[in-house]
Design a protein that fits this description.
InterPro entries: Benzoxazolinone_Detox_Enz, MoCF_Sase_C, Pyrv_Knase-like_insert_dom_sf. Pfam families: MOSC. Residues 27-162 form the MOSC domain. It comes from Kribbella lupini. With 219 residues, the chain is an alpha+beta fold. The chain has one domain (2-172): PK beta-barrel domain-like (M1 Pyruvate Kinase, Domain 3, Beta Barrel). The protein is built from 6 helices and 13 strands. The strands form 3 sheets. The chain has an 8-stranded mixed sheet with strand order 4-1-8-7-11-10-9-13. The chain has a 3-stranded antiparallel sheet with strand order 6-5-12, with no helix packed on it. It has a two-stranded antiparallel sheet with strand order 2-3. Helix 5 crosses helix 6.
């Protein structure tokens, strides 16, 4: 399990949102890159209302999922095309548990916070009509991380899973197959959650006690 590349913004490019620009164009870096609480040195965020911050400081996408997309689309998916800061190898990101902690190299530790929700900027980047829906349906969202310990990382660094919380909500469950019992289990576990995710989990968990509801539901 390792980092294939570490990516930061190459240049701001025109985007479809009111900000006018997007920092989605990430490219692999040579050498070690410092990771702070708000992300990688040299990186940038344009739409600060919907991206970035402590809970979305770093975004990772798996090489295995990129290869799958390459086959589906008949084109290469070079590292950084999806706006990811990290391209990983040997890690099943979709089945990572919300709240589990990884060590990147010898110094940096990050916590799994949430799946990536595709937006119009991502669709504009790909130039594929209906891309948001297609990406969602594929259920290969990648992972947003919170930085727990700062330091430096580089391509080739090993990735170690340091700890896993005692619940069953994976990135995939949170992204698509939202199960009320699993959501309640996550809430009961006491794992640290970002506010938006906690609200979603509580809403889904409440379905179990709503008259006429089914034990689980998919959104």
């Amino acid at each position: 399990m390792r980092l294939l590349t570490v990516n930061v913004v190459e240049e701001l490019i025109p985007g479809p949102k009111e900000t006018g620009w997007t920092a989605i164009d990430k490219r692999p870096q040579v050498g070690r890159v410092r990771v702070g609480e708000l992300g990688l040195a040299g990186d940038s965020v344009c739409d600060v209302d919907n991206h970035g911050g402590l809970d979305q400081a770093v975004y990772a996408y798996a090489e295995e999922d990129a290869r799958w997309w390459s086959e589906q689309l008949g084109r290469e998916i070079p590292s950084g095309l999806f706006g990811e800061n990290l391209r990983t190898e040997g890690l099943d990101l979709t089945n990572a548990l919300i709240g589990e902690v990884w060590r990147l190299g010898d110094e940096v530790e990050v916590q799994v916070r949430a799946p990536r929700i595709p937006c119009v900027t991502f669709q504009h980047r790909m130039g594929i009509p209906g891309w948001v829906k297609r990406f969602h349906q594929a259920q290969r969202p990648g992972v947003y991380f919170k930085v727990v310990k700062t330091g430096t990382i580089a391509a080739g660094d090993q990735v170690t899973v340091v700890s896993r919380p005692e619940h069953e909500v994976t990135v995939g469950v949170m992204f698509e197959a939202q199960d009320s019992a699993k959501m309640q289990g996550m809430l009961d576990s006491g794992v640290d959650l970002m506010d938006e995710l906690r609200e979603t989990a509580q809403r889904v968990a409440n379905r179990a006690s709503t008259p006429g509801s089914t034990p689980s539901a998919t959104q």
